[in-house]
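Project outcomes to date are best conveyed with an example. Our students and postdoctoral researchers have been running inverse folding experiments weekly, and each run begins with a structure described purely in tokens. The record below, which covers 301 residues, was selected by the lab manager from last quarter's runs and is presented without edits.
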């Protein structure tokens, strides 16, 4: 099989440092991709250490690492507890996640993730799933489309965009990225076209892959599978992800505040380690994908 080209992992040293790796520990990389973070973890593990990795994208399987300490699981990380238990693992010492779309997925035109290429509307991270960008754009009701653009793209013009798409598809389906751009052209001012397109694509992609639901399910399981003093090291790329990660680390919840005892204190399962970490200007120059990355580290309290 052809080797898949993946770019440099973002915040490599900082993210793996955040795990505070023990040589004989058990760790999980839930966003394997090209294997960059996993390879760095394996460098720091001893012969008795173990690393499990998750990736729902079949392309990622071509990057598997030939190492007896390593196991790659072709599943969505929302099922982390189930599949770790399948492999006889109930507790781990650290979990690493690099959320969002891999550089490989952006760079393969036919996957439909990038605004740079003309492609069929797809955007599926797991290509075996039925729901694609085509289905969202051509089959969702106007109210559903509006909600997708508003919630996941934070687009103020969401109602008008949804209305225009529904009106257009009465005469013909919207099949390609260029057709979608053409339909929404009035919302793409020349100076801000790329920014608005990125928001539109983000919204559709999140809906297609159910990213917010998957992230919530995943985060909710992490305190249960972490050993005492175990670490979480998570990179987010947009405010929706980062907000959920930040709130869960702080409160153990996604909304509201945790219940307090009679003395006004509350217990949460996690405790943040250090402050927010962002890439240096030098890393962004080398790897443009790093520009919006935010790394948060937590430990089991």
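After processing, the design step wrote out the following sequence:
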């Amino acid at each position: 099989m052809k080797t898949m080209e993946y770019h440099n992992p973002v915040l490599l040293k900082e993210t793996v440092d955040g795990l505070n790796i023990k040589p004989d520990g058990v760790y999980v990389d839930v966003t394997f991709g090209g294997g960059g973070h996993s390879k760095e973890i394996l460098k720091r593990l001893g012969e008795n250490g173990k690393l499990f990795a998750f990736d729902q994208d079949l392309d990622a399987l071509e990057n598997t690492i030939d190492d007896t300490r390593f196991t790659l699981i072709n599943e969505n990380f929302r099922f982390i507890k189930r599949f770790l238990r399948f492999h006889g693992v109930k507790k781990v010492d650290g979990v690493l996640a690099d959320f969002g779309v891999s550089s490989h997925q952006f760079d393969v035109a036919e996957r439909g993730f990038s605004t740079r290429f003309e492609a069929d509307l797809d955007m599926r991270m797991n290509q075996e799933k039925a729901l694609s960008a085509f289905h969202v754009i051509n089959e969702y009701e106007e109210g559903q489309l509006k909600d997708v653009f508003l919630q996941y793209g934070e687009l103020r013009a969401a109602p008008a965009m949804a209305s225009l798409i529904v009106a257009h598809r009465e005469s013909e389906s919207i099949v390609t990225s260029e057709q979608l751009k053409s339909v929404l052209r009035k919302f793409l001012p020349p100076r801000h076209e790329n920014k608005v397109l990125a928001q539109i694509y983000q919204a559709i992609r999140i809906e297609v892959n159910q990213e917010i639901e998957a992230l919530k399910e995943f985060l909710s399981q992490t305190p249960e599978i972490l050993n005492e003093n175990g670490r979480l090291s998570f990179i987010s790329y947009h405010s929706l992800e980062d907000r959920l990660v930040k709130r869960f680390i702080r409160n153990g919840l996604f909304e509201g505040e945790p219940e307090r005892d009679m003395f006004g204190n509350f217990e949460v399962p996690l405790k943040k380690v250090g402050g927010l970490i962002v890439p240096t200007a030098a890393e962004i120059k080398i790897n443009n994908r790093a520009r919006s990355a935010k790394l948060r580290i937590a430990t089991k309290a």
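The radius of gyration is 20 Å. The longest strand covers residues 226-236. The training component of this project remains on track.
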